[in-house]
Amino acid sequence: MTTPDAHPQPAARPRLGVFKFASCDGCQLTLLDCEDELLGIAAELEIAHFAEASSDAAPGPYDLVLVEGSISTPEHLDRIRRVRADSRHLVTIGACATAGGVQALRNHADVDEYLATVYARPDYIATLATSTPVSAHVPVDFELRGCPIDRGQLLEVITAFLAGRRPGIPNHSVCFACKRRGNVCVTVAHGTPCLGPVTHAGCGALCPTYGRGCYGCFGPAGTTNLPALVPLLHRDGMSEEDVGRFLHTFNTAAFAAVEEQGPGVTGAEGAE
């Protein structure tokens, strides 16, 4: 007769990998900024690969992978496919990973001209003509917006993974957050240009709370109507060129896609 092990081995913790592509590292730093909560995360997850935090990088497979940064070089294409193959669940974090980032401004111009202007030896530079989100190349299980991402939303995504449920990230606009905070609308009250009506919530309406118009760092909201907003931006003193610059920043590729689709379209939500 066999007897149960008097000292059973503890169950293995799910393995977390954090990877960076073309980005500024700000979204990875948001995870480190969780501070006290990070201790709880480390107790529930084995942080197997996180170069921003440790040089001890263990190979896959990983149960959950967080990816920061856009796909901007041929090497990125190869590496994101390897990361995806090693990942049970892959979540992109931040505007670079979900929309190509500010570096996607190259998508509107001649990348060879940029290279010739910036680099003394552009023939040494290996780059792609466009900067694209991770989802353009591999399947993504969820997209977390922001430049940088919100700390509370990141904790929700990790907690949801541990609980085996979908993250409860709202898909409404910044205007909802302004109402909840009791903010006076900066556009209605002061004629301040604001992208709040078409921007995904997540920042807690930070800029409008301090009297500044939203400038779209979380990308398009679930449903947007840019054609209805643009005349208001003109009314508040913005030229056509100003409006273009207003939209072409952190999420230029995402807003450009919405512009092409027309009014009342659904913006990119957390990927299924």
What does this structure look like?
- The chain is of the alpha/beta class.
- The chain is 36% helix and 12% strand.
- It has twelve helices and seven strands.
- α3 links the parallel β3 and β4.
- The chain starts with 14 loop residues before the first strand and ends in a 6-residue tail after the last strand.
Low-confidence regions:
264-272
> What is the string of helix and strand elements?
EHHEEHEHHEHHHHEHHHE
Oligomeric state as shown: single chain
* Fraction in beta strands: 5-15%
User: Any idea of the CATH topology of the largest domain?
Assistant: Rossmann fold
Strand order of the largest sheet: 2-1-3-4-5
CATH class of the largest domain: Alpha Beta
Integer-rounded radius of gyration: 21 Å
- Measured between the Cα atoms of the first and last residue, the distance is 49 Å
What is the helix fraction of residues, given as a range? Answer: 25-40%
What average pLDDT do the residues reach? 90
Count of helical regions: 12
How many domains? The number is 2
Brief rundown of the structure:
By secondary structure, this protein is of the alpha/beta class. It has helices at residues 26-32, 36-44, 74-85, 95-99, 111-118, 151-163, 174-181, 186-190, 206-209, 226-235, 240-247, 252-261; strands spanning 15-20, 46-50, 62-68, 87-93, 142-144, 223-224, 265-266.
List the helices and strands and how they pair.
Layout: E1 15-20, H1 26-32, H2 36-44, E2 46-50, E3 62-68, H3 74-85, E4 87-93, H4 95-99, H5 111-118, E5 142-144, H6 151-163, H7 174-181, H8 186-190, H9 206-209, E6 223-224, H10 226-235, H11 240-247, H12 252-261, E7 265-266
Parallel strand pairs: 1-2, 1-3, 3-4, 4-5
Antiparallel strand pairs: 6-7
